[in-house]
Amino acid sequence: xxxxxxxxxxxxxxxxxxxxxxxxxxxxxxxxxxxxxxxxxxxxxxxxxxxxxxxxxxxxxxxxxxxxxxxxxxxxxxxxxxxxxxxxxxxxxxxxxxxxxxxxxxxxxxxxxxxxxxxxxxxxxxxxxxxxxxxxxxxxxxxxxxxxxxxxxxxxxxxxxxxxxxxxxxxxxxxxxxxxxxxxxxxxxxxxxxxxxxxxxxxxxxxxxxxxxxxxxxxxxxxxxxxxxxxxxxxxxxxxxxxxxxxxxxxxxxxxxxxxxxxxxxxxxxxxxxxxxxxxxxxxxxxxxxxxxxxxxxxxxxxxxxxxxxxxxxxxxxxxxxxxxxxxxxxxxxxxxxxxxxxxxxxxxxxxxxxxxxxxxxxxxxxxxxxxxxxxxxxxxxxxxxxxxxxxxxxxxxxxxxxxxxxxxxxxxxxxxxxxxxxxxxxxxxxxxxxxxxxxxxxxxxxxxxxxxxxxxxxxxxxxxxxxxxxxxxxxxx
Length: 478
Hints:
By secondary structure, the chain is α/β, with parallel strands linked by helices. It has 2 domains: 32-65 and 371-477, Aspartate Aminotransferase, domain 1 (Alpha-Beta Complex), CATH 3.90.1150.10; 75-368, Aspartate Aminotransferase, domain 2, CATH 3.40.640. The strands form 4 sheets. Strands 4-12-11-10-7-5-6 form a 7-stranded mixed β-sheet, sandwiched between helices. Strands 13, 14, 15, 17 and 18 form a 5-stranded antiparallel β-sheet that branches. Strands 1-2-3-16 form a 4-stranded mixed β-sheet. Strand 13 and strand 14 form a beta hairpin. It is built from 15 helices and 18 strands. Helix content is 34%, strand content 17%. Helix 14 (427-437) packs across helix 15 (459-477).
């Protein structure tokens, strides 16, 4: 006789449509119903415990039920939960905006730095999630270009192959993952693409596979950068320049945790700026210390500050939906005018600057910025590096890409030939399912298994995460 579903699981099966999920598969088994969390641990309705090895889809920086974040929410609840930002100001949003602008100032460059002068981010537009933060940036860039360079030709955008910037129409338009986006082609505007700096599968990398991150042994001549230069030059020749270049700094997330080789970002940023293009940095996944370094933002590690920066996910430490788009003063000034000129930025959200979200985001920033917090993240990243080194023993591990506390482990049929598993084989999904049986939760991106632990993860918990991954790869792929 079939096992009876837990009442909550039954309600889920009856009514909930899950994102990025084949619901026929979903309805075949009882889902894990999570109810409690503390630190890096989650608990389900059956009382089983799991380690949260992907920070609840890359959002939960400090772990679950952090006492300081809980307290910040309670304090704000004692005042007001939400007030409109349309024609009104709120204290939590104003203070958070000032703190984000301050955090967006990069460390001073070294005397021998070749980094080009950077703009200064001075204004913050709040929204709800990563997609809306990118959507805001695209609209600002589009209209800024029209107002400063004229309405013709229509502003265009350039982004990276394999890019994922969200699921609203503009964000999908600058994304390039056909599996996700092809069905919506009729809704989208055209955006051009350049090759991803994917060292492991780069056609210009002449190095034979080794048991190491492909960035460390690549043999190429920066052909990926030459491709960016060629694309910008072509745009200039045809008199259809790009309004903005959209990128994820240091690591492309949903593309498969593709880590960029050091030096790629400043090179392409210099090319884009020389052609008069704005830079839109998608720091939704990479921001708030996730990729390591002295700054909270990934681009700062390579000396690049964009004209527009999109933030979300870890902004509130995974507590509430909140996003922000940071912009420079010249972009803001292009929207100033008399009322009758209608130069207003006609865009907004009901929950813009939500007081609860802004209050907990401020406390999250306060947790992130002390030097001791940075040292803790660095120590955890070193332990992760040491643990991941054991995975090279498994012949189905082709590449291990790590930047700070983000890691992607690419599974292959034959590491000596880099032969990929077909997506239909569910190579990464099956490994994640085996990890779940071992009490560790994460999610794959195709054939790439992701590890992105919360910053509160203890050494023994991280060892369990890596051990579960090792044993699951061995179980599924032998």
